[in-house]
Amino acid sequence: MDASASSSAAAPDPSPVHGPGLPTAPAPVSRLRRLATPVGVMAAVVGAFGYVATVDPNEPGHYPVCPMLRFTGVFCPGCGGLRSAHAFAHGDLAAALGANALAVVGYAVLAVVWLLWTVRAGRGQTLRIGLAPGYWWGIGAVLLVFSVVRNLPFGSALAP
Question: Is the pLDDT of residue 14 over 70?
């Protein structure tokens, strides 16, 4: 038996062949590592809500005044957002809606997106939210209409 016959009878080397220009398979990522980013983002959100819950935005001097409100006297779509977050963190949904109803809707949408992101990350899938330009225009239109209506007399219920 010659040397070439004995080497071909041996079991193949299970390690992949690496060399210049040869692709390598990515190492599998653990579930804990896949969930690290969504969990980290949620920790930051909880921290932010915790801060707003303890430092009351209803008391002057804790947060800067909205520049649009300060210089024009017009409520922007975000005016009342901190008061809304404060009330929401304390479980007062009626006060949160009264301060900024659009922000409360935003909390719900972001919670659903975060939950979807976490489930998909746990399964090893990516989350891609590609909105067509029409949706972005629609979101902008909702923000604009909300801003205009909350500054008109009949929409005073939407003002903070």
Answer: no
Contact 78, 158 (CB under 8 A): no
User: Is the Cβ–Cβ distance between 64 and 55 less than 8 Å?
Assistant: no
Residue 26's region, left for phi above 0, alpha for psi from -120 to 50, else beta, is: beta
pLDDT band (50, 70, 90) for residue 93: very high
Position of tokens 């209506």? Answer: 149
- Return the ∠ at Cα 21 (arms to 17 and 24), rounded to 5°: 50
DSSP string, 69-81: HHHH----TTTTH
Q: Does residue 32 carry a pLDDT above 60?
A: yes
Phi, psi of 73 (to 5 degrees): 80, 10
